[in-house]
Amino acid sequence: MEKFKALLSLSFIVTVFGILVLVYMDSPTNDIHYTKQKIREASNSIMLINGSTHLMVSAFIDHRLDGVIRVISIINRNSLQPLYCVYCSTEHDCRTVQADVQIHKDHFGFPYGASDVICKGKHMQNATHVLITTDKNNSFDHKMEYLPIRNKVPRETFKFNFTICISNLFGDYNNVLQFAQTIEMYKLLGVQHVVIYKTKCGPDLEKLLKHYETEGILEIVSWPIDKFLNPASGWNIKLHKGDVHYYGQLVTLNECIYRHMYQSRYILLNDIDEIIMPYKHTNLPPLMEDLQSAHPNVGVFLIENHIFPKTQFEDTGKFKRPEWNNIPGVNIMEHIYREPDRKNIYNPTKMIVNPRKVQQTSVHTTLKEIGGCYHVPLNVCRIVHVRVPLQGHLTKDQLFVDKRVWDFEQELIPNIDQTLKLSGLLMVSS
Prior knowledge:
Elements: H1 2-26, H2 32-35, E1 40-41, E2 47-48, E3 55-62, E4 68-76, E5 84-90, E6 93-98, E7 100-103, E8 112-119, E9 129-133, E10 145-150, E11 160-169, H3 176-189, E12 193-198, H4 203-215, E13 218-222, H5 249-259, E14 264-269, E15 274-278, H6 284-294, E16 300-309, E17 337-338, E18 349-353, E19 358-361, E20 366-369, E21 373-375, E22 381-387, E23 400-401, H7 409-422
Parallel strand pairs: 1-10, 3-10, 11-12, 11-14, 12-13, 16-21, 16-22
Antiparallel strand pairs: 2-3, 3-4, 4-8, 5-6, 5-9, 7-8, 9-10, 14-18, 15-22, 16-18, 17-23, 19-20
Helix pairs in contact: 3-7
């Protein structure tokens, strides 16, 4: 009798187990991956912070500050409110902490300013995505888009030695010839990567950008700031009305530094009509090797700006090439006259930086850096800036002749022609 009961009990267990196996195998939820709601990643380079007028841009681990998450943001200084970070490793493992909002001190009086939203919390090193919110009770919401967290692994080897961060392209900017000349010059100087934050540009420049993007030297970051704010087209709020300085220039410069922190050994922060030009070295690598050897702890090298008026042309017409007649833009090869320094007036600087030693930057100098700054002497390196004159009253014989750009003509001219042909802007002679 006892044996019969035992057999019956065993038979019952086997039957139930078999039914459960069949149900499990027939169920569409047998694989946990099918039931999970995936974290939705941001589809735009700018996102509105829910419940506010603030904007968030991108998120990075900052290994210099014990692995906190730094979210590059645009904060409305007139509408401050508590903000919270929702950071997730999966949708089932999200945590909410109050954020520390750090508005950069340089905002030029505009209502919106470049800012860092700092997230500090437990197990942050495992987080893959983050969302900034005004709701302290917020938890994972699969309907919301989250910023992917970048720079999770610090690196000591870099894809590029020199990257240029240029901001911002907007309006109908169509200065094709100067753009091509500048990029081709930078290639000869040792730059391997150029980053541009683009809102809009002219039709001819669009063709040139597509060529450089296909070639691989150019990274274009979409920058639809005008879809969220009324951006100013200049830096002076009295002259250029709007919500944010110069189409968010300060935001893009900071974003570019963090985006390429572990991709590039050095980053050049300058405008597209400026060339950071070595005068004692053939190109940028030996320049930076000498500067860094002499100043091993410095991470920010300030390069002084010098104006080459586009209204003054060299006399021989040597570079007034008929091939370029129909290419819109300034021909920098024709402008070899440099304005003299003005007494008691400081020339603004642009920078070559080690991005791993910069926490916050402005346009002409950094706001927070590690190791200090070094002002590079003019005879070592200066910026060749071909633009409208600042001292327009000066005659040609009151300017300095500076033919440094001509030192590159043998390679530069054919490279420019080839680029313009490949871009469809210069007709190929039969």
